[in-house]
Amino acid sequence: MKTPKALLLPLLSAAATVAALAATYLGYLRLEVPRQHWFCHFARAPQPGMIWPALAVALMAGLLWAALRWRGRLEPWKVLAAAVICCYLCAVGTRISTKMGFTALAATVMFDGSNSYFTTATETSDPLALARDYPARMPHLRLHAATQSPGTFLLHAALRRFFLSCTPCMSLAEVLLWLNPCHRAYEVAAIVNPIWGSAFQPPEVLAALLIALFFPLILALGAIPSFLLARSLSGERSALVIAALYAVTPSFIWFTSAVDQIYPAISALTLFLVYHGLRHRTRWLPLVSAGLLTGLAIFASFGYSVVALAMALFLVLMTGAQSKRQLWLRSATRLAVYGAGVVAVLAFAQFGLGIDLVGVAGVSGELRTKLYLHDLPRPWLTWVLLNPVEFTLGLGFSTAALVTAALVLRRSRRDPALVLLSATLVALALLDLSGAARAEWSRMLMMAMPLCLIGAGGAVRRLRLYQPAPAVILVASQALYALVCFQLFEVWGGWIVPFD
Fold this sequence. Notes:
Shape: globular
Number of helices: 27
Oligomer: single chain
Number of strands: 4
Radius of gyration: 22 Å
Structural class: mainly alpha
């Protein structure tokens, strides 16, 4: 395929990006459904600190162009390292570019509207005792903690305790606050406590900042398993494009610092283990490890079950693609090995730690139904139609174009990348139709975005989008969309405005 044809898809996605930015800027596209779910639209004043994310994108795009232009002269690991750094600087740099600097970053962990797990942890002297009594306590807990597994609350409690006991970490946080925006921890507590009616102590402010820096770090490292798996599925040059697009996925940048940022890395690593477990008939350790990792993720977030379903579908479909002989036996065996790891973790939590996950799941379902039907009504049909739209906005137009192309241009049902993409989209469709998650797909389902991106790697290979010009256009347009939209609306809502 000639280069001009290879430029068609990138230019179309770039045009869609520019159109979306213009519509948002002019007010024609408002990301809101009144009284149901919305993003806060406002124009941030240009911040000098935004130069760092922009430079990180430019560096990564330049290295990507060089690696694809002069194949063999620039080691792929340099592009991958640039992708990790770019992802982290974009996620953190956008948030600290505002006038409140690192205080704004800490605030996203401390405020109930974006993260009530940390506040719950600060108010609990014995986190494990609360987890064991979770079903009875859930209706009285704060916003997010009331409808999720206690695993996320326990994660925050463990991180808080670790950082509070780590003197070098606390010193680092203190220095960062002092450098930008010249705050002390006690001053931050004095700012937020009257506004929110909270009672944070200065050390907890520092711990919140460290947690806010930790989540995007895990997110950025997810570019590594994404690259490694994409290389196995679609080739090295396509994998470089996938890693670069991962780094500038809009939702990854907008939702700093949500605990949801850790799940894209976990899902990419889990999928990497599943795939390599499938490549050898007797290699069970990767499948067991993937199951254990999946179990831990489900313990932290019930929503990760959608990724577990996608993994299971991928495992079954890939088994069928490899051989028709003894299909059901092999599928059942591999599913059993993978499922054993999942069950082992959940059983340990249920019986070893004494946390009633079955009871928690029941109460969570009841509370979520009440939320969707009464407290914050979200009609089923409205969000069946709008969930994919919000997911696409968070995924980015470049990646969405690749996903569409991969589905339209499918050639072989045995292509692992296409099998992965199909399994992921089926799992997302089932979740959408179930009505279990209405709205907020741009945040809650960040965990599924790497699967879509890696699954679309086949389109990069078939359309030869790993050539320098198409690849850079795809990455640059998605980065432009992510960074500019950060200036046009705030995903956390109006509460963040005082910190801008």
